[in-house]
């Protein structure tokens, strides 16, 4: 365990969440997680869920996707959007360069990875969509 993780109590992490992310994004994130727990077979949001909730709450889908471990991108030469899913396909996330995204998306995705490393994120099974 690093010195940083030793100092990061649940209270400290909760305060950082409030400071790092705008209120509307936090509301969308919490609603998305709550909805997906009941609506999806594996209890985790899908890319289409991220798109729907970002539109519903009026927040950038890249930021919201980052908070749940997903990054959207457009492969060169195509108009279709693709999603990297660090939850369902963690190996693909380790090979991907996050620097292609805005600082806000990097912050959101980093938040997801940090809280996952703390053990707050527990998944029982993997589902591929």
Number of beta-strand segments: 2
Helical content class: 55-70%
* Sheet with the most strands, sense and barrel status: 2 strands, antiparallel
Mean pLDDT: 84
* H/E element order: HHHHHEEHH
Task: State the secondary-structure class.
Answer: mainly alpha
Could you characterize the architecture of this molecule?
- 56% of the residues lie in helices and 6% in strands.
- The protein is mainly alpha-helical and 129 residues long.
- It has one domain.
- The longest helix is centred in the N-terminal third of the chain and has 17 residues.
A few lines on this structure:
56% of the residues lie in helices and 6% in strands. By secondary structure, it is mainly α. It has one domain.
Features:
single chain; 129 residues; mainly alpha; two-stranded antiparallel ribbon; 7 helices
Secondary structure elements and their pairing?
Elements lengths: L2 H5 L2 H11 L2 H17 L7 H11 L3 H7 L2 E4 L8 E4 L4 H6 L7 H15 L12
Antiparallel strand pairs: 1-2
Helix pairs in contact: 3-4, 5-7
């Amino acid at each position: 365990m690093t010195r940083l993780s030793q100092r990061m109590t649940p209270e400290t992490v909760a305060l950082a969440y409030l400071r790092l992310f705008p209120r509307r994004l936090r509301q969308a994130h919490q609603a998305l997680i709550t909805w997906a727990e009941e609506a999806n077979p594996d209890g985790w949001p899908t890319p289409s869920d991220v798109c729907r909730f970002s539109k519903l709450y009026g927040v950038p889908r890249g930021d919201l996707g980052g908070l749940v471990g997903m990054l959207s991108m457009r492969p060169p030469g195509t108009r279709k959007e693709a999603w990297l899913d660090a939850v369902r396909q963690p190996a693909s996330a380790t090979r991907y360069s996050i620097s292609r995204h805005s600082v806000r998306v990097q912050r959101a995705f980093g938040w997801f990875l940090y809280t996952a490393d703390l053990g707050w994120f527990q998944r029982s099974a993997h589902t591929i969509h």
